TrEMBL record:
Protein's UniProt name: Trafficking protein particle complex subunit
Family: Belongs to the TRAPP small subunits family. BET3 subfamily.
Assembly notes: Part of the multisubunit TRAPP (transport protein particle) complex.
Subcellular localization(s) per the UniProt record: Endoplasmic reticulum; Golgi apparatus, cis-Golgi network
The organism's place on the tree of life at top rank: Eukaryota
Record carries keyword Transport: yes
Biological processes per GO annotation: endoplasmic reticulum to Golgi vesicle-mediated transport
Keywords recorded for this protein, A-Z: Endoplasmic reticulum, ER-Golgi transport, Golgi apparatus, Membrane, Transmembrane, Transmembrane helix, Transport
Transmembrane in keyword set: yes
Protein's organism: Gossypium raimondii (Peruvian cotton)
Amino acid sequence: MIGTGKIKQYANVLDKPLGKGKQEVSLSAFAFLFSELVQYNQTQVDNISELETRLEDAGYAVGARVLELLCQRDKGNRRETRLLGILSFVHSTVWKVLFGKVADSLEKGTEHEDEYMISEKELLVNRFISIPKDMGTFHCGAFVAGIVKVSSALIFFCIK
């Protein structure tokens, strides 16, 4: 008999468990897709702030999907309600899934009591993007800011 063995056969693709699978993406493919995302959005807007807003929105959409996937894979289905716990989850788990390593640091701000910063020395989205002189204030990190912004919805994603 063909297909008999230790591998379990599934009648429907939706019956398959959400395993971790292979989590690697080609760096050159990511760089190409991200640069195309930036170029496309650049043709659709009039100024730099609109471009950064569109990149942030795209990052928010990516972050929401990654967050939902991580919560579905979590066996305990626990939910974090403390701000520092949520930021620590983003700093370690989410960052590692997206960028292959934990962020460099999670720091508490000095000006405000509830201000925290996730720091990365060399952000992957900035590595392959060259910014023209007329767009000197543009920063591709807006995409990652959108991913981090989705952490405000973390409490609602992982409901028991």
